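Could someone model 2-hydroxyethylsulfonic acid with this protein?
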Amino acid sequence: MKKIVLITGGTSGIGKACAERFLSDGYKVIITGRRQERLLGFQTQFGENDVMTLNFDVRDNNQVVQALQSLPEDWKNIDVLVNNAGLALGLSQFYDGNVDHWNTMIDTNIKGLLYMSREVSRGMKERQSGHIVNIGSIAGKEVYTNGNVYCATKHAVDALNKAMRIELSPFGIRVSGIHPGAVETEFSVVRFEGDEERAKIVYQGFENLVAEDIADAVHYCCTRKPHVNINDLVIMPQAQPQAGVIHRK
Ligand code: NDP
Ligand code: 8X3
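Reply:
Sure, complex below.
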């Protein structure tokens, strides 16, 4: 029987690349996101037999619960959950911070990940197997200037990754954290609220990571022998030796 992987935030970037990577290895894939047209486009491209879509906002626990309950029986036994949906908004000193940005980052990156993990881990516990992969960030290992609240949310992901591993280990469930540096996706366009010119500058003058690099790592973690748990992978562009430092040509 094909394994089932659910990837939050499958409408672009790392999540979409993960969906493609797992599909190419014969998994059935559930992708989620708020942009329904993108979800349906992906399903049309890869077919309804192997792709299921769930259109909801991870910040709303009621939507999370309803979406997961709406899955047909043969899609309910999720083997792998990739907690990927997330974002940064703004880049400024905390004392000039935008409270709406803070709330959106905290609600998405921390609370959304918790809502998803709580629901999906219930079935995994019953079946005594499963794997949760949390997409953190180098921003969850280090802090960079003006990254304050985004860094704080990703430090929380790092802590939750460890906490989940401790609490789910007795049930045979694996938990892995993947912590990338700069990956060129829609991340910076979102961070700068649609300012594509400013977003482009982030990736100029060095070879950034691409979403497929991270999808490869996620797939690697999930395809080890069952007794092997990859706890943490920190993956950086060669030119980015630490958070906030990029050597540009
Ligand atoms: P993208 O902006 O390309 O993708 C983000 C995804 O998250 C989209 O599919 C988006 O879907 C989804 N998403 C955002 N908010 C919500 C929400 N409220 N409800 C449901 N889905 C949501 O960025 P990336 O692919 O780069 O980001 C993926 C993850 O990787 C994030 O957690 C990010 O913090 C992390 N990361 C990114 C790095 C980078 O440099 N790009 C580096 C380190 C970590 P939709 O808008 O359709 O809802
Ligand atoms: C994003 C990582 O280094 O681009 O999570 O801010 S970085």
